[in-house]
Structure formats: C-alpha cells, structure tokens
Design brief:
Elements: E1 2-7, H1 10-15, E2 19-23, H2 30-40, E3 49-53, E4 56-57, E5 69-74
Parallel strand pairs: 1-5
Antiparallel strand pairs: 1-2, 3-4, 3-5
Length: about 80
C-alpha cells in the first residue's frame, strides 16, 4: 500500500522534504512508518514526534490504510 507522509517544522528540515510517498506493508502503523523513515534519516528518531492521520491526532499504533495521509511534526511552544 502507499501512504503520503507530510513533514512540518523540524521534521521537514531533518528529512529535507515536506512530503514523501511511502510504500508500506498492509499491517503498517504510524510507528512502523516512522521506523522506516528513521533508517534513511536517523536524526528523525531524536525528535519527540506528534502524529496526525488524515488531519486527526493519532496514536503511533494506529493501523494505516492505503492512500492515507500521515503528518509528522514536533510540539511547538510559544510565549
């Protein structure tokens, strides 16, 4: 299956892209996608990541479906 991964803020800087299309197993979770990406971009694993699937916050163990959109970003604080 294919999923689109969107990167925001520090994650985009780390990966060097704002969007990638990833091929994944049918039983893929958001965490397995992050693990897959971290092999090519080890610095990604250093971030505390937040995940959204189809614009809804999601748990890393959420099963993905073909064609879904996964957004990865770091927590942002302001003051």
């Amino acid at each position: 299956m294919k999923v689109t991964v969107l990167f925001f803020g520090a994650t985009a800087d780390t990966v060097g892209s704002r969007e990638l299309e990833i091929r994944a197993d049918e039983a893929a979770t958001a965490k397995s996608i992050i693990d897959q990406l971290s092999k090519d971009h080890p610095a990604l694993a250093k971030h505390k990541l937040l995940i959204a699937i189809n614009e809804e916050y999601a748990d890393p163990d959420t099963l993905l479906k073909d064609g879904e959109e996964v957004a990865l970003f770091t927590a942002v604080s302001g003051g």
